[in-house]
Design a protein that fits this description.
Distance between the termini: 76 Å
Number of helices: 2
Radius of gyration: 30 Å
Strand content: 35-45%
Largest sheet: 8 strands, antiparallel
Structural class: mainly beta
């Protein structure tokens, strides 16, 4: 319900949520622009909260519930003490038994101290909600007393005096997990089956004077979330249930605010193994946080319209969502999302715990502060709350985490609408000069935790005036290559370049200077690779960075992982280029771009090794930061040094060389598949082929070099990773001919 004087509304777990109309959709990924383009803004709209965590006191346990209003944040959970920011566990602590109140603007505790206890078992505060006028804080959970005053799993607190109400007394038979409050009604959700001595299964409503109301919305399983619609006419219910008042509606329902009778049911709408953990609203919609158990479940967020109670959108990220909150047209969420590939975002990888989306579009916005999983279950964030104070708006997050933005911080953290202090990463730069009279300045776009569009400035030969300025869009899983060509150079000259990245407020340090001598003649080998249509071409000329620049002209750059050995010489092909070395245990590279299924293809690279552990040289997989679960279109070395080329066509189909190539010499390796089948060439000669297999596994994925999963492949080597040097790696969208491959090999000394 709305508070007419403050514009703030309390809801489930006491979140005071800003009510605002949705802002416009964030445009699609921005492309590089030329000099004169508008510089990046410090925050990419509609994001209006920075990702920079503020100094905040900590708990020694889990924060399960929060409420916020008038510059005060209330936190409840399962903890016993507080400590200042940066203090290590067990130091400088003060008592706080499952409850604390904080100044929203400073992050420090107020003098409101309450102790929630129980005679046996572990007391916990699982729900907090403020009355619309902010004068009463309602608390639910599992507890039998507040500051020694006997209660039964629910209590009312006078916020001015920080004292327990002696007039709000009603027995609730088990844990209260959710609360929502209007001017005259308190709605409860939880584990209980009785309220005030009468039957109420998991949902109930009482007056603000603690009298049980006839509202009946009986659920067959645990209730976790309850929220009143802004017009006060309906109540939104969430939890584990499959039936409300005997009608099929799994995990979500809309009921009449007076009677509890169903207004809208959702049979089959949410996966049977998924639940609703939290619900929030704005002026036009409501939003659910969903958690699933097992494979193929639904873990993401759903946006629904309040006018029809029908779905507006849903995302399909995997990694259970625990909390949702809306501010200025953006849905902020706490989860442990680890795989958002199904909606065009990051593939399966280490968890990300805080995300943002437009209320009108599930596309992930560039807002990526992060926590760890922490203690308990563990899942990281559990609850969110917001309030304004001193002209700033604050977003608070509570949960199980013990770090925030990689720094030690337990249980609580907070963010604000400014100032933005986060500096973008320093760009990774690589130069190439393949033809006379030009130097290509290539760089991997940077990352900023709360701005997707960054401005890049290129500085030449130590000048303090940029020679070129452009903008580009990037997020942590997609940092595309940008390229600018300097034609104000002459053959034989040497020039150096440095680049900065700026979010409009904060500017990175200049990248380390990279130098190149302008080519006096066109290099024959790379010219032929590009002329034959390479869609990806990594020459491995970088030094000490994560960036493998693409010389094909398609900006299909790569990420290098775990610090391979850079600038290895002599390289495979004559000229100024270098090779890269992989250790055979953890080092590899993967393409930044998610590539569509290649029905026909060629992979080409040079290798030099003496390994007897084998390993994957190049191939296609569905993941980037861990071993792929789908993997084919690959070339690997067996322990005996023979090379094997494989695709999946129903099952693993492979061809192999008869000779070994772990002799410490450079070898040119090319594998093709097309209408004529599979072919494997080494040093310009066909070494193995099959006309039987013209198809391969159909899935989008990433090209990976140096290592990936080899489970299930014939003659699997000891290691998934290749130990040796690799050079001049290229991928083509066609099957190169034998004459083309032979010509490439012949140019090795050109």
């Amino acid at each position: 319900m709305m508070n007419g004087s403050t514009g703030r509304r309390s809801g489930r777990r006491g979140r005071v949520r800003a009510v605002s109309a949705a802002l416009g959709l964030l445009a699609g990924a921005l492309t590089a622009t030329t000099v004169g383009a508008s510089p990046a803004a410090a925050l990419t709209p509609p994001v209006a909260i920075t990702a920079d965590d503020l100094s905040t006191w900590q708990t020694n346990g889990i924060v399960w519930s929060m409420a916020a209003g008038d510059g005060v944040v209330y936190a409840g959970g399962t903890f016993s003490r507080l400590r200042p920011p940066t203090a290590a566990p067990g130091t400088n602590e003060q008592p706080a038994v499952n409850f604390a109140a904080f100044d929203a603007a400073t992050g420090a505790p107020t003098d409101c101290s309450l102790s929630f206890t129980i005679s046996s078992g572990t007391a916990t505060v699982r729900a907090l909600a403020l009355s619309p006028d902010g004068e009463t804080l309602y608390a639910g959970g599992q507890f039998g007393a507040v500051n020694g005053v006997g209660v039964s799993n629910i209590a009312a607190i006078d916020t001015e005096t920080c004292t327990v109400s002696n007039t709000f007394k009603i027995g609730v038979s088990a844990t209260v997990r959710g609360l929502a409050v209007t001017d005259d009604t308190v709605y409860l959700a939880g584990d209980f089956t009785q309220v005030g001595g009468q039957s109420r299964s998991h949902f109930a409503a009482v007056t603000t004077g603690a009298s049980l109301l006839p509202f009946t919305a009986n659920a067959d399983e645990v209730a976790r979330a309850v929220e009143v619609t802004p017009d006060g006419q309906n109540v939104l219910l969430g939890g584990d249930f499959f039936r409300i008042n005997g009608t099929n509606t799994h995990a979500l329902a809309v009921v009449d605010a007076t009677t509890g009778q169903l207004t809208k049911s959702y049979p089959g709408f949410i996966h049977n193994n998924s639940t609703v953990q939290d619900i929030t609203t704005d002026a036009g919609g409501f939003y659910t946080a969903n958690e699933g158990t097992g494979g193929g479940v639904f873990d993401g967020r759903i946006a629904l319209n309040l006018s029809t109670f029908e779905q507006r959108w849903r995302d399909t990220c995997l990694g259970a969502t625990q909390a949702v909150l809306v501010h200025s047209g953006v849905l902020y969420s706490g989860s442990h999302a680890h795989d958002c590939s199904s909606m065009g975002a990051f593939p399966d990888q280490p968890r990300k715990h805080l995300l943002a989306q437009s209320v009108d579009d599930p596309k992930l916005l560039p807002w990526f502060p992060d926590t760890n999983d922490g203690i308990g279950e563990p899942v990281g964030p559990r609850v969110m709350a917001q309030t304004s104070s001193g002209g700033r708006h604050y977003l608070w997050v509570g949960g199980e985490f013990t770090t925030v933005n990689t720094k030690a911080q337990q249980g609580l953290t907070r963010f604000a609408d400014g100032p933005d202090t986060g500096v973008p990463w320093v760009p990774n730069v690589s130069l190439s000069t393949l033809t006379p009279g030009r130097i290509d300045v290539n760089w991997q776009t940077s990352f900023d935790t709360d701005d997707g569009e960054l401005t890049y400035r290129i500085y030449k030969d130590g000048s303090n005036t940029p020679i070129h300025t452009t903008t580009g869009y990037s997020v942590f899983w997609d940092r595309p290559q940008l390229t600018w060509t300097d034609t104000d150079v002459a053959p034989g000259e040497t020039h150096s370049y440095r680049i900065t990245a700026s979010d409009g407020t904060n500017t990175s340090a200049r990248s380390p200077a990279q130098s190149a001598t302008v080519a006096s003649a066109t290099e024959a080998y790379p010219a032929r690779v590009r002329a034959d249509g390479a869609s990806l071409y990594w020459r491995w000329d970088e030094g000490t960075s994560t960036f493998a620049h693409d010389s094909s002209g398609n900006l299909n750059n790569g990420f290098m992982r775990n610090g391979p050995a850079y600038r290895q010489t002599p390289a495979a092909v004559a000229g100024p280029s270098t090779a890269i070395g992989f250790n055979g245990t953890s080092q590899y590279a993967y393409s930044n771009r998610l590539n569509p299924h290649p029905a026909r293809f060629t992979v080409e690279t040079w290798i030099k090794t003496t390994t007897t552990q084998g390993g994957r040289i190049i191939g296609f997989g569905n993941l980037t930061q861990q071993n792929s679960t789908r993997h084919d279109k690959l070339v690997y070395m067996r322990n005996d040094g023979r090379l094997q080329f494989g695709v999946r066509s129903g099952s693993a189909r492979t061809i192999a060389t008869s000779g070994a190539y772990n002799d410490g010499q450079w070898h040119h390796v090319v594998a093709t598949q097309g209408p004529s089948g599979m072919a494997l060439y080494v040093d310009g000669q066909l070494r193995a082929s099959s006309i039987l297999y013209t198809t391969n596994d159909n899935y989008p994925g990433y090209w990976r070099v140096g290592g990936d999963n080899l489970s299930g492949w014939p003659n699997r080597p000891t290691s998934n990773f290749f130990a040796g040097q690799i050079d001049e790696t290229a991928v083509y969208p066609t099957a190169l001919s034998a004459s083309q491959i032979s010509a490439h090999y012949a140019l090795r000394n050109g």
